[in-house]
Amino acid sequence: MSRASHRPHVVIVGAGFAGFQAARTLARLARGRADVTLLNPTDYFLYLPLLPQVAAGVLEPRRVTVSLSGTLKHVRLVLGEADGVDLERRAVRYTGPEGERGELTYDRLVLAVGSVNKLLPVPGVAEHAHGFRGLPEALYLRDHVTRQIELAAAAPDAATCRARCTFVVVGAGYTGVEVAAHGQLFTRSLARHQALRAGIEPRWLLLDIAPRVLPELDRRLSTTADRVLSGRGVEIRTGTSVKEATREGVLLDDGDTIDTRTLVWCVGVRPDPLVAGIGKPLERGRLVVDPFLNVPGHPEVFACGDAAAVPDLAEPGEFTAMTAQHAWRQGKVAGRNVAASLGVGRRGAYRHHDLGFTVDLGGVKGAANPLGVPLSGPLAGAVTRGYHLAAMPGNRVRVAADWLLDAVLPRQGVQLGLVRSWSVPLDTASPELARVPGGPAAPGGHPAPADARSHEHEPKPEE
Length: 463
Ligand SMILES: Cc1cc2nc3c(=O)[nH]c(=O)nc-3n(C[C@H](O)[C@H](O)[C@H](O)COP(=O)(O)OP(=O)(O)OC[C@H]3O[C@@H](n4cnc5c(N)ncnc54)[C@H](O)[C@@H]3O)c2cc1C
Fold this sequence. Notes:
Blueprint: E1 9-13, H1 17-29, E2 35-40, E3 44-46, H2 51-55, E4 65-67, H3 68-71, E5 76-79, E6 81-86, E7 91-95, E8 101-105, E9 108-111, E10 115-117, H4 125-128, H5 135-153, H6 158-164, E11 166-170, H7 174-191, E12 203-208, H8 219-232, E13 235-238, E14 242-245, E15 249-252, E16 257-259, E17 262-265, E18 269-271, E19 282-283, E20 286-288, E21 294-295, E22 298-303, E23 308-309, H9 324-341, E24 358-360, E25 366-368, E26 375-376, H10 377-391, H11 396-408
Parallel strand pairs: 1-2, 1-9, 2-5, 9-22, 11-12, 11-17, 12-13, 20-23
Antiparallel strand pairs: 3-4, 6-7, 7-8, 10-18, 14-15, 15-16, 19-20, 21-22, 24-25, 25-26
Helix pairs in contact: 1-9, 5-6, 5-7
The chain binds flavin-adenine dinucleotide.
Enzyme class: oxidoreductase
EC number: 1.6.99.3
Family: Belongs to the NADH dehydrogenase family.
């Protein structure tokens, strides 16, 4: 791709929390001094923390997206997915949305490609579980859950009805907890309008190998989440994992078998595989950078967010966690440091203060510890929603409007069926994109099936 300008060219790969903020900061600081190009597979920034609300029908999917070209003035958007970085030639190769190949050369590069679903070598999981890392998966889950309740109502026998009404979430980190919390409320509201067999109601199980839910967060958040979820009837099984998954259910490592058609895999994430192909040192798959977010030996290359192993200056010897808070603030530092490398301002190391964490437990409830103060109940719920509204870089009024509507109207119990099981495989390098029949193969991911009936994951009969 040729450029007319002779200004330095900065390429930012990935427009999530880190990349969006890097682009915004840089466009402001180095306006007129550098050309900034943002390479991303979608034309929007995705506010991932609200994804469980999309899966539960609280928010419509476009609410959690923010248009890149609408918010990032003076930044050129190139739609595509990077599949190789040549550090010697200073070039990024990519595949566009219609399969076209392209290349961007750079003077400065920021890698902010985030993470993808983490797989564990458990038989049947890749085929029968779905992850929760992108909008297509959230849309799939909303439709799938709605369909299960509808099919349960029409099931020929009680065992089938019970299996369809059983939902298993593996991984009780913040994603799994929020998916189970919102999912349980969603199915409860769906079941009100379906004639399920007497004595059968939606059942949610939340499993984790760890001894408590939210194992990586403050113990007080964990206690609150456990109390709220258990109080609503979610079965929490800690110290438990999945031994095998099949089309009909899951076998747990304690020997129990759960008949279900729904297995949501929230065991965590791993860095986007793009960074492993660069040939530079990695820390658990994350690209190692110095405190200035520079890749050692390459002062022109920066990395931040989930894909980068950033030294935690507050905890020497550790790396910062994979959270939106870190990614957002690292993006800002990356933007500033790229500008400094072009002669604008001074560079600085990434330092942070723990601002606490918020977990949305659905309804009006939450668990939060803003600035270390533990909160629970509706106050925590209000703080959580307020925090998300403040943190979103756009679309706030629409999100607030959906929350208001959800508070006064029943949820819409309809499934559009646009995202099918085979189009959101668990093992993919591109959770942000749904596979489409005959579409281009995703770099590093699963190829799209030639048609919806010929995929390596045998579609379930109802899908
Ligand atoms: C359901 C869910 C809830 C969460 N809730 C919270 C929360 O409450 N609080 C919190 O702190 N964290 C939360 N997180 C974690 C947080 O979202 C991540 O840590 C954060 O998104 C990381 O930011 P990032 O910029 O590194 O990656 P991302 O935000 O994932 O952005 C990566 C971007 O890179 C793009 N990309 C990927 N590969 C390529 C490629 N090859 N070429 C070009 N572009 C590419 C992607 O499309 C995406 O736009 C949650 C995560 C999930 C999944």
